[in-house]
Design goal:
Shape: elongated
Number of helices: 5
Number of domains: 2
Length: 222
């Protein structure tokens, strides 16, 4: 996780003056049968990375992410007076560059082109609409039939028109990487740990039943 966070720090030109180390971050780690889940944040809580099964699926920067401003009138009043340093086309280019900086590309993720690009706006109590210096760039995913809103893109970047960098990223479609062959030994567990779990625990973890497991005893087989 720390290696990925540092790569993003460099590739996305984040406002972090020195490399991230175990001594200047806050972190949480949870080992699962599918890989490591967890998170990293800078000690000032400005930057935050979330990982699922060993890969990054969310990032945000609290100072310029839209959520930090859209529901606060004082922040909106300040933002409406700031002219964006980029336009929609440039925001899209920044998002693509950031995606490629993660080692991903549009074809690998089955993204539908072109992405939806919109500039956030604020409507005041008099009905006046003001553009805000922030953009959302989002792609729909080919073949996605999940339960979330089909009208909303699945892979999204929020781009700050003030810093010209990524302020938020969300992507639940990042391909998962295979576990190291010694993953369970690294956790101090036997290599066949999953095969030692009882059927009930395997179901709880979403694991398939063992093919060589003994048949369940019911009142029909007794």
């Amino acid at each position: 996780m720390l290696k990925q966070a540092n790569q993003i720090r460099e590739n996305w030109h984040l406002d972090i003056s020195e490399p991230l180390t175990i001594n200047n971050i806050l972190f949480s780690v949870q080992a699962t049968p599918y890989g490591i889940n967890g998170g990293i944040s800078t000690r000032d809580n400005r930057f935050d990375w979330s990982f699922s099964q060993g890969v990054l699926d969310q990032f945000y920067e609290t100072q310029y992410r839209p959520f930090s401003a859209l529901y606060y009138e004082d922040k909106l009043a300040r933002l409406v007076n700031i002219k964006s340093k980029i336009n929609a086309k440039e925001a899209e280019a920044i998002a693509r560059h950031a995606l490629h900086g993660l080692g991903l590309d549009e074809n690998r993720l089955h993204l539908i082109e072109p992405p939806r690009v919109k500039q956030y706006k604020h409507e005041d109590s008099n009905g006046m609409v003001y553009p805000l210096p922030m953009f959302n760039v989002g792609w729909y995913v080919k073949g996605y039939t999940g339960l979330t809103d089909p009208d909303e893109p699945r892979v999204t970047f929020d781009i700050s028109g003030i810093t010209k960098t990524v302020s938020e990223y969300f992507n639940p479609h990042t391909p998962r990487v295979p576990l190291p062959t010694n993953y369970f030994q690294m956790l101090g567990l036997p290599a066949n740990y999953l095969e030692t779990l009882p059927a009930r625990e395997r179901r709880r973890l979403g694991l398939p039943p063992l093919t060589n497991a003994p048949a369940a005893v019911t009142n029909l087989t007794q």
